[in-house]
């Protein structure tokens, strides 16, 4: 019996093109799902969970759905996909360890997983948002997701440092009271990103003040940079 012939270069190229087409078809709906899930988590699920209104199962289910949506967006990039999968393992593992033994190391493991996932998703979306090509509805959706990711990224940092540095914030409600410290820090992060700043929660530690300043600068520069890029792309397309 003769050995099976290896696939030809033309067949491999056709298979790569088919996979690329599947990715292009799944990426845009994936962006839509990521946007819907992130907006729901930030503006609805997180505050309601902090109030104790929603069942405890809702938040984990939303995170699982968000992970699948993120993978649909990032799976064409092997590095981003691996980073997301590592984050999926690292974050809950660190959380479980922290519940058993709350130490700075377990805090960093839990927060590091979330930061890694947000960074991988953001870098993948940034390539789409600021890349060449015509301005589309899905590109604008990606820009909104990227903006929300900034708030989530800094929220994760604030929560980590709030656990590691005692009395790092002033005006922060204790965990389990009012809307909970987690929901309050999420509110603080987006208030800082948008430079709204009601002043009810303020950073006291010098490091946190610097990080809050950095988030406020990004919140101002990103919309201006994005608008300039989108306008230039539209001008190039109309020529």
Summary?
The chain has one domain (27-238): Helix Hairpins (Orthogonal Bundle).
Uncertain runs with pLDDT below 50, 5 residues or more?
none
CATH architectural designation? Orthogonal Bundle
CATH topology, by name, is: Helix Hairpins
Overall tally of structural domains: 1
Q: Quote the distance from N terminus to C terminus.
A: 61 Å
Task: Estimate the strand proportion.
Answer: under 5%
**Largest sheet features:** 2 strands, antiparallel
Average pLDDT reading: 80
Structure commentary:
The protein has 239 residues and is mainly α. The protein has one domain (27-238): Helix Hairpins. 77% of the residues lie in helices and 2% in strands. The longest helix has 42 residues, at 9-50. The protein is globular.
List the helices and strands and how they pair.
Blueprint: H1 9-50, H2 58-74, H3 78-100, H4 104-129, H5 137-164, E1 169-170, H6 180-193, E2 202-203, H7 206-238
Antiparallel strand pairs: 1-2
Helix pairs in contact: 1-2, 1-5, 1-6, 2-3, 3-4, 4-5, 5-6, 5-7
């Amino acid at each position: 019996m003769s050995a099976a012939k290896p696939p030809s270069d033309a067949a491999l190229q056709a298979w790569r093109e088919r996979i690329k087409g599947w990715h292009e078809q799944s990426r845009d709906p994936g962006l839509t799902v990521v946007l819907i899930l992130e907006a729901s988590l930030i503006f609805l699920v997180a505050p309601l969970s902090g109030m104790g209104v929603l069942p405890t199962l809702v938040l984990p289910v939303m995170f699982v759905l968000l992970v699948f949506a993120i993978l649909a967006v990032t799976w064409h990039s092997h590095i981003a996909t691996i980073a997301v999968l590592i984050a999926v393992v690292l974050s809950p593992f660190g959380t479980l360890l922290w519940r058993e033994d709350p130490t700075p190391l377990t805090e960093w493991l839990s927060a590091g997983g979330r930061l890694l996932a947000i960074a991988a998703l953001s870098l993948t979306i940034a390539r789409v948002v600021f890349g060449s090509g015509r301005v589309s509805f899905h590109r604008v959706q990606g820009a909104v997701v990227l903006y929300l990711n900034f708030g989530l990224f800094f929220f994760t940092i604030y929560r980590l440092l709030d656990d590691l540095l005692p009395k790092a914030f002033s005006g922060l409600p204790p965990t389990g009271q009012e809307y909970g410290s987690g929901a309050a820090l999420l509110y603080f992060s987006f208030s800082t990103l948008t430079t709204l700043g009601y002043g009810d929660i303020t950073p006291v530690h010098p490091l946190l003040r610097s990080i809050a300043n950095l988030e406020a600068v990004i919140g101002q520069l990103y919309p201006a940079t994005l608008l300039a890029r989108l306008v230039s792309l539209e001008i190039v397309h109309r020529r």
